[in-house]
Amino acid sequence: MKAILVDDEQMALDFLEHLLKEFDGIEIVDKLTNPFFVKTSISKNNPEVVFLDINMPQVNGLELAEQILELDSSIHIVFVTAYDEFAIKAFEINALDYLLKPIQKDRLRKTIQRLEGDILFHNEKSMLQQDRLRLNVCGSFSITKANREVDLISWRTSKVRELFHYLLHNRGKLVRKSLLIELLWGELDPEKAYAQLYTAIYHVRKTLKQYPDNFQLENMTEGYILSTQAIDIDIELWQKNWQVMHLLKRIILTIMLKQWNITQRLILMTMIIGGQKMKRLDSKEYGIEQRCR
């Protein structure tokens, strides 16, 4: 289990390192007194757990934990805190582990056992989720799993649904916050519009949280990037199937035309041209949500 230790006090870091080295299976890949280097270290070392002090003068540990989970939602956060038992109860409600200073070895053992169990569960869950999911965006929004179970997804508001659809349509690309504001909340003043955007993003994350291996929503300085993995989207599958069917039709028509007389060929060409004129009425590129209609 790879671990990063973060505390602005060097003595506290050294003491935690000393305790952790008494347990098998713990590899300390980095120790940091400057919390601003945490995200760089995570990208370099790929830890399973970060032991994070809450009371640091440079940054609030709770806020830093949110940033870490945005970077990699699979990382386990263990808070190291001098807060009293009443404050610690709040962390337990949110399923966040903690160590109370001064750290006791027996309490640390329980934390490591809990971490090992959580990491094992996550690894087994990831293996089960290697099968592809089908995302159904036309009609009722739902996700079909490999075992054919269907999760019906409800969005907090229509704006949240539209936001997700736009991010999905542009997945893998940076979507600027200013563009989202213009598209979805253009009638509001900037302060209210950005507040609505951040709230909507929160609800998108909350909805996708149960599929951490399939969706990643990154918060960049200027916008957001939605990444997907092992996901099939119904309308894109239909488009691919249509392209295959269209190719088959062309092959079949080529064979048939060689056998038909001139009159039969003229009738067929008239039908094809008429169909193409109808298609031109709807040839514009739309987003995923519009293409479902």
UniProtKB/TrEMBL annotation:
Q: Which PROSITE patterns match?
A: OMPR_PHOB, RESPONSE_REGULATORY
Q: Name one GO cellular component term.
A: protein-DNA complex
Q: Which residues carry this modification: 4-aspartylphosphate?
A: D53
Instruction: Quote the DNA-binding region ranges, renumbered to this chain.
Output: 125-228
Under Gene Ontology molecular function, one entry of this record is:
transcription cis-regulatory region binding
Cross-referenced InterPro entries: CheY-like_superfamily, OmpR/PhoB-type_DNA-bd, Sig_transdc_resp-reg_C-effctor, Sig_transdc_resp-reg_receiver, WalR-like, WH-like_DNA-bd_sf
**Keyword line:** DNA-binding, Phosphoprotein, Transcription, Transcription regulation, Two-component regulatory system
Subcellular location(s): the record lists: Cytoplasm
The record's listing under Pfam families reads: Response_reg (PF00072), Trans_reg_C (PF00486)
Response regulatory domain location, by residue? 2-116
User: Which intervals hold domain OmpR/PhoB-type?
Assistant: 125-228
Extract the SMART domains matched here. Answer: REC, Trans_reg_C
A Gene Ontology biological process in which this protein takes part is: regulation of DNA-templated transcription
Highest rank taxon of the organism: Bacteria
Its protein name is: Uncharacterized protein
